[in-house]
Design a protein that fits this description.
By secondary structure, this protein is α+β, with helices and mostly antiparallel strands. Among the domains are: 108 residues, no CATH class; 128 residues, Glutaredoxin, CATH 3.40.30.10. It is built from 9 helices and 15 strands. The strands form 4 sheets. The chain has a 5-stranded mixed β-sheet with strand order 13-12-11-14-15, with helices on one face. A hairpin with a 5-residue loop joins strand 9 and strand 10. The longest helix is centred in the middle third of the chain and has 25 residues. The chain is elongated and about 90 Å long. 32% of the residues are buried.
């Protein structure tokens, strides 16, 4: 089962506004109806008397946050109010392609120097925490896009695997920059853009799983610094989805893959972990007292346990029950005599469902003595045959 999680930034809804006409600062007039808490000003060479639009995306569509028009020399000055940190797009004129994406935080005083011809590829931001990172990002991203166009022209002319490797090599400079920048300052607002190169937007096959640690650092920093921003919560949800998706990918491609850790309580409230059973072959058996097919399969599981329990084999039964009494009674009634029974008593809401990527029970995962997955979904005769192969009499 392969799942691809495409990373998407959340463009926060901001209050509607008009362009400021003067050179007032963010703090100038506390008595106005809307107290400006950000400013974007600067010069766009070759862009005289052209409109600028600061926009946010919402479920209802594009929202205009601020607008203004450059003067005869390309100078502009834009102020307004935003609720919290968010991602916005600065659009030049009526061209939907002439857009810069930028993070804004209340009290940002952004200075932008750019040229009409290179507005998207070579902006020069200053005055904020995120300016330096974003300038470097746009430079590398522009180079990446140009080289990618050349690579696209080779489609159909070279094998797909070779083309994919060229694409991955092409990404290396920007991947390395994004990783280094996020690690250096996990809470930097620019990271919400940079992490698009750290997420598995082409699936998990060629994705570096060490990026997950970096993404978690960033998510924690965002939740700490920008508690009121929807984008922080969205980032936390995205990272959680990526983690679950990667675990599912590992299970689905389980050759020599470690089984995800299980750490749940037994009926007496004592925690049992999968890793504590290392040194034995372990059958992880997902079941529930209310599951008819599970109960029907249990006699076979009991038989196999009794046959191989003294030969380096054990069972970890993971219940999807939500009633502890029913769970205990089923264990006793079916004679499930092994000691390793665990559950979080959340039924189908159990994290185990997503962690191991199954959609029905009974479901089994056979794990070797080192904790690596041997095979999944074994039942009945197929399970018995596999154990005979592994455990010689």
């Amino acid at each position: 089962m392969k799942k691809i999680f495409l990373y998407s930034t959340l463009l926060v809804i901001a209050s509607l506004a008009s362009c400021s006409g003067g050179k007032k600062t963010v703090e100038d007039d506390p008595n106005t109806d809307i107290i400006e808490n950000f400013r974007i000003s600067g010069t766009i060479e070759g862009a005289d008397n052209i409109s600028l639009h600061l926009e946010a995306m919402s479920p209802q569509g594009t929202i205009t946050v601020a607008e203004c028009t450059t003067d005869a020399d390309g100078n502009f000055d834009m102020l307004n109010n935003i609720p919290d940190m968010g991602i916005y797009q600065l659009r030049l004129g009526d061209d939907q392609e002439s857009v810069l994406t930028l993070p804004l935080v209340p009290q940002d005083n952004v200075e932008l120097k750019a040229a009409f011809a290179t507005f998207q590829s070579a902006p020069d931001f200053s005055g904020t925490e995120w300016s330096e990172s974003l300038n470097k990002y746009y430079g590398l991203f522009s180079q990446f896009i140009e080289k990618q166009k050349n690579l696209a022209s080779q489609q159909g002319k070279v094998p797909d695997e070779e083309l994919m490797q060229k694409y991955l090599d092409l990404r290396k400079p920007i991947d390395a920059f994004c990783l280094k920048s996020v690690e250096a300052n996990p809470g930097n607002p620019a990271n919400i853009l940079l992490t698009s190169f750290l997420t598995p937007n082409m699936g998990f096959k060629d994705w570096d799983p060490t990026y997950l640690t970096t993404l978690k650092k960033m998510s924690a920093a965002y939740m700490s610094r920008y508690k009121k921003s929807p984008i922080a919560q969205k980032m936390a949800e995205q990272v959680s989805q990526i983690e679950i998706g990667y675990e599912q990918f590992k299970v689905a491609n389980s050759g020599n893959q470690m089984a995800p850790e299980i750490a749940l309580n037994n009926p007496e409230g004592k925690q049992i972990t999968l890793s504590s059973l290392r040194g034995k072959y372990v059958l992880i058996d997902f079941w529930a007292s209310w599951c008819g097919p599970c109960r029907k399969e249990n006699p076979n599981v009991v038989k196999l346990y009794n046959t191989y329990k003294d030969k380096g084999f054990t069972i970890l039964s993971v219940s999807l029950d939500d009633n502890v009494t029913n769970w205990k009674e089923a264990i006793k009634a079916d004679g499930l005599v092994w000691p390793n029974h665990v559950s979080d008593l959340l039924g189908w809401k159990s994290k185990m469902v997503q962690l191991y990527g199954f959609q029905g029970i009974p479901y089994t995962v056979l794990v070797d003595k080192e904790g690596k997955i041997i095979e999944t979904g074994l039942r009945g005769e197929s399970l018995e045959q596999k154990l005979k192969e592994l455990i010689k009499n």
